[in-house]
From TrEMBL:
EC number: 1.2.1.88
Chain ranges of the Aldehyde dehydrogenase domain: 18-338
Pfam families: Aldedh (PF00171)
Organism encoding this protein: Periplaneta americana
Entry-linked InterPro entries: Ald_DH/histidinol_DH, Ald_DH_C, Ald_DH_CS_CYS, Ald_DH_N, Aldehyde_DH_dom, Proline_metab_enzyme
PANTHER family: DELTA-1-PYRROLINE-5-CARBOXYLATE DEHYDROGENASE 1, ISOFORM A-RELATED (PTHR42862), DELTA-1-PYRROLINE-5-CARBOXYLATE DEHYDROGENASE 2, ISOFORM A-RELATED (PTHR42862:SF1)
Gene name for this UniProt entry: ALDH4A1
Superkingdom, natural source: Eukaryota
Protein name per UniProt: L-glutamate gamma-semialdehyde dehydrogenase
Length: 356
């Protein structure tokens, strides 16, 4: 596919082309729909049959097969850090086998935050947090999982979160008034419920809302709110990928050090939100939290980016921040070629400055 052509002067024509870069793939249970969409769009865009393929397979079997193929052109992965690290390591180990250097894109996990300033609008904070933390049972890479609230606002925000939480209908997702449903599988159920048990057994943590779980019919876990006196407890630091929100009420005099903790306490940088009406604080937070979120929200929940409007992705251990849904993404999967064609015959090897 040739997409650009420049004639620089009468002597040269420089042409740039972009062409496909070999095997691309995007495995993810959580992204099956987008796999199908990519497949459909590719066909509609004119790619011949066989260029984009849907290949259902066991994850590690597929990963081992493609990373050991000399024809691997790139990996476009959505999933956990552990799996992406395994794939990247395998690519490194096989580097001498490949016909070209594979492009690697990772869209990985997050420990997404809501940071509340004393000037914040309390209702916005409560409603945005309920949606972000508990929609899709918290199984969204961008879901809010940790929250920092000034102690002065905590009683109001806590009461509001608990009241709204108790109104959420958990059940059959085909019913329109259902807000959230079961988690995806037994593995997720075990992982998420282990964090709830950790909260019950830790002196720094209190389960203040929800906390029950039941796998007798489907893997159901109540939307759960945990209050923490330790901002570095593992429940405030590790990705849970489930409906568990941990809140650290901070002292107002510790505002700046708490803001720094947002970036320092986790290795992730996917999404984050600040809630404030104080414009000077918002400017300060934007600067201070620059490296903590690929998608940063102001007075809005940390989820809900729309393809084509808000390119999505994060840095640090959240991925390679190539921004799916944005204009640069497709270029990562092309291979530009620069071509020079000379129209003037060459008559000697000496350059003009070398003449006697
Ligand atoms: N950043 C994003 O855009 C984004 C979006 C959705 C989910 N996520 C992240 O995905 C994770 C949850 O998804 P998950 O539990 O399915 O993750 P996962 O890493 O366990 O699995 C992701 C996909 O990779 C496959 N897989 C597993 N091992 C593999 C291997 N060795 N080689 C090749 N493929 C392999 C799985 O079958 C699955 O399809 C969370 O960390 C979440 O934050 C990120
Ligand atoms: N577009 C999603 C993120 C994509 C991953 O699941 C969001 O709602 O923020």
């Amino acid at each position: 596919m040739r997409i650009q052509r420049y004639v620089v002067n009468k002597k040269f024509r420089i042409t740039s082309t972009l062409q496909g870069n070999g095997v691309l793939w995007k495995p993810s249970d959580t992204a099956l729909l987008s796999n199908y969409t990519i497949f459909k769009i590719a066909r509609e865009a004119g790619l011949p049959p066989g260029v984009v393929n849907f290949v259902p397979a066991d994850g590690p079997v597929f990963g081992d097969a493609v990373t050991s193929s000399p024809h691997l052109g790139g990996i476009n992965f959505t999933g956990s850090v552990a799996t992406f690290n395994r794939l990247w390591t395998q690519v490194g180990q096989n580097i001498n086998r490949y016909r070209s250097y594979p492009r690697l894109i990772g869209e990985c996990g997050g420990k997404n935050y809501h940071f509340v300033h004393p000037s914040a609008d309390v209702t916005t904070v409560i409603m945005g947090t309920i949606r972000s933390a508990f929609e899709f049972c918290g199984q969204k890479c961008s879901a809010c999982s940790r929250m920092y609230v000034p102690q002065s606002l905590w009683p109001k925000i806590k009461a509001g979160l608990l009241a709204e939480r108790s109104k959420l209908k958990i059940g059959d997702p085909t019913e329109f008034d259902t807000f959230t449903s079961a988690v995806i599988d037994d593995k997720a159920f075990q992982r998420i419920s282990s964090y709830i048990e950790h909260a019950r057994n830790s002196k720094n943590l209190s389960v203040i809302g929800g906390g029950k779980y039941d796998d007798s019919k489907g893997y159901f876990i109540q939307p759960t709110i945990v209050e923490s006196t330790d901002p570095e407890d593992r429940i405030m630091v590790e990705e849970i990928f489930g409906p568990v929100l941990s809140v650290y009420p901070y002292r107002e005099q510790d505002l700046d050090s708490t803001l720094r903790l947002v970036g320092e306490s986790t290795p992730y940088a996917l999404t984050g939100a600040v809630f404030a009406t104080d414009q000077r604080f918002l400017q300060h937070a934007l600067e201070e939290l620059k490296q903590t979120a690929g998608n940063f929200y102001i007075n809005d929940k940390s989820t809900g980016s729309v393809v084509g409007q808000q390119p999505f992705g994060g840095g640090r251990m959240s991925g390679t921040n190539d921004k799916a849904g944005g204009p640069h993404y497709v270029l990562r999967w092309t291979s530009p070629q620069a071509i020079k064609e000379t129209f003037v015959p060459l008559t000697e090897w000496k350059y003009p400055y070398m003449s006697d």
